[in-house]
Amino acid sequence: MNEMYVEMLKPILPPAELSIHLVVEILLMVLICSSNIMVLVSMSVHKCLHTVTNMFLVSLAIADLLMGLFGCPLDIIILYIMPLHLGRHIQDKWLCAARLFCHNVSAGASVYSMVGIAIDRFIAVKYPLRYRELITHTRVGIFIGCIWVYIIIGSSVNFLGDIVKFGPGDTCRSVQVRDPNFVLFVKCNILVTFLVSTFAHIVVAIVATHQRAKVASELAAFNNNLAVAYKKENRITKTMSLIVGLFVLCWLPYILITMVKFKGSEPKWFKHLFSFTVEISIANSLINPWIYAFRLKLWRKAMKNVLFCKYNAHVSDD
What we know:
It is found in: Cell membrane. One of its GO terms (biological process) is G protein-coupled receptor signaling pathway, coupled to cyclic nucleotide second messenger. Belongs to the G-protein coupled receptor 1 family. Keywords: Cell membrane, G-protein coupled receptor, Membrane, Receptor, Transducer, Transmembrane, Transmembrane helix. The protein is mostly helical. The chain has a single domain (8-160, 173-254, 267-307), classed as Rhodopsin 7-helix transmembrane proteins (Rhopdopsin 7-helix transmembrane proteins, Up-down Bundle). The chain is 78% helix and 0% strand. The protein has helices at 3-8, 15-45, 52-86, 93-126, 131-134, 137-155, 174-177, 180-222, 224-257, 268-295, 297-307. It is globular and about 70 Å long. The relative contact order is 0.14.
């Protein structure tokens, strides 16, 4: 590798600033793994959490855990450890493809799961009496299985042919090393599901606001237990909307910054901003378990039991 080529691969950020980003991402990795493992263990040991809606939350937790177990370590190695150790970025096609694969699967599974949550909440709010008939464990299981198969197959394209290809001075960033057509395919998938999920949750919020009092009073006249259950469903709906809203806030800066182009080399401030938006998008994988704990009483009790190793303790929503 000639000197000019090596010079092009030198990191713009100095070692001290790279080290700060390294520490931040290691901290995120540890917290993401521990909190999402707690969610999955809570779901596993507490039968009361085995609801249809929680199947989507498990799918989200697995997607987030994938980011913590594989996405973050690959980020740490490629973006920080190797530049600090070698004094330059590396151009390893397969390592980079693995990093992009993990990010695609985690983000893709998350956003498609949120589309499922939007459908689930719309039916729960709009058709509460038919909810159990329309949304079953089998149907949701098939839906989740299909989205994971689709996302894994689609993301596996990263490993084919010249989909990932380095040019002089390129680092392992999607817009630099991936085939432009595949980048467009990935962006269209995420953007469409992103918009569908956001729009659907806005519709759900509007429907819930307009119909909450009317439906609750009708259900109370018919069966008070149904009215109580409906109020709980509304709280779950608000929580799911909060999850989607925070997902949008965490990922939107990263999506926007990947669209920015410079004629020459990227300035130092942009490198800082890019690293920051990557960390914010990754931090989304940490947020969801804490939303469950603070917003949903049943999850809060279950996660507390897991934290203190009380796996056989009874959990109720009372």
